[in-house]
Amino acid sequence: MINTPVLVTGAAGFIGFHTSLRLLKAGRKVVGLDNLNDYYDVNLKKSRLKVLEEFPSFQFVYADISDKDALENTWAEKGPFLEVVHLAAQAGVRYSMENPYSYIKSNCLGHLTVMEMCRYTKGFKHLVYASSSSVYGGNKELPYSVEARVDTPISLYAATKKSNELMSHSYSHLYNIPQTGLRFFTVYGPWGRPDMALFIFTKAICEKTKLPVFNNGDMKRDFTYIDDIVSGILGVLENPPVRDNDKAPYRVLNIGNSRTEYLMDYIHLIEEELGQKADIDFMPMQDGDIRETYADITATTELTGYKPKTTIKEGVPRFITWYKEYYNVGT
User: Fold this and answer.
1) Is residue 142 packed enough to be buried (19+ CB in 10 Å), middle (13-18) or exposed (0-12)?
2) Spatial distance between the Cα atoms of 226 and 330, rounded to a whole number of angstroms
3) All structural domains of the chain with their residue ranges
4) Active site annotation includes 157
5) pTM for this one?
6) DSSP 279
7) Cα gap 139→87, rounded to integer Å
8) How far apart, in whole angstroms, are the C-alpha atoms of residue 241 and residue 156?
9) Which of 79, 80, 88, 185 could form a disulfide with 9 if both were Cys (CB 3.0 to 4.6 A apart)?
10) What count of other Cβ atoms lies within 10 Å of the Cβ of residue 149?
11) Contact present, 235 and 253 (Cβ < 8 Å)
């Protein structure tokens, strides 16, 4: 086992928090970096950090990944980091139409800055970073395969994530940095993001407010429970790619449930668990959105043995239990 700490960027975020927690429980040292931006409730991010800070082997760094000086100081004071799980990013498809500059700064400049740090780290092992199923864009062939062309993004968010993949390939080729990009598929679970479907639906039903459902509910998603996502991340982290002749030590993998569910079935499950009906406001398809997602995880399974275990019938109730406790609903 590597004794140096793992750097997790976006450690106060949903996936970053759960990844850090799993690493800490496994006995690893973790340095978590986050700028605690206000894209969604900062108090939720701080609550996640409080859980992580209960572990003596966790250190938090308040910094922005696009700040080169801050990252250099972090590397010098807390490192060296031979393994990096880079999850910090400006998230959200719809918000990218309102605030595009934040996506270029965080997702492009931030990604470059992280790679530059890895580039100059002697003995660097592996950079695992977050891509997104959004890169599949206008692709019509299901399930989504990592071999498919992804040059038709339909949102700026997706374009920045595809840019990350291209940037990473060039750095892997030029500087021999082992890198793996992970295309996540609709992650949900306890401590989830307030801008994601499960959180929005649960909140609206609990508060008896209108629940917007786009494309008149004719949507399907490859919902992936957070524990399965983290298992995928850590399985990949332990298996860095290697240079093969002229082939760079680089790859892209899908991390999904490999099972697509109707959105309305998802909503009915939430209603059933809460014991309340949703007041649904059916709306047309939103710009930048995708009707259906479905992951081909063959390559991921072959590499790591990754097999998602959690169905929505198991995962949704776990989220709702957390939501009620955290927000004191029905108490």
Assistant:
1) middle
2) 25
3) 6-185+226-258+294-308
4) yes
5) 0.94
6) E
7) 25
8) 28
9) 88
10) 9
11) no
Element (H, E) at 247: none
CATH class name, domain 6-185+226-258+294-308: alpha beta
Q: Compute CA distances 329 → 76, 131, 219, 284, whole Å.
A: 45, 34, 29, 31
Per-residue pLDDT of the chain (331 residues; tens, 9 = 90+): 457 899 999 999 999 999 999 999 999 999 999 999 999 999 999 999 999 999 999 999 999 999 999 999 999 999 899 999 999 999 877 778 888 999 999 999 999 999 999 999 999 999 999 999 999 987 888 899 999 999 889 899 999 999 999 999 999 999 999 999 999 999 999 999 999 989 999 999 999 999 888 777 778 899 999 999 999 999 999 999 999 988 999 999 999 998 888 999 999 999 999 999 999 888 887 776 677 888 999 999 999 999 999 999 999 999 999 999 999 987 5
Q: Using the 8-state DSSP alphabet, how is residue 286 labeled?
A: P
- Sign for the CA dihedral angle at 294, 299, 302, 303 comes to negative
Q: Which distant-in-sequence residues (6+ apart) come within 8 Å of 43 by Cβ?
A: none
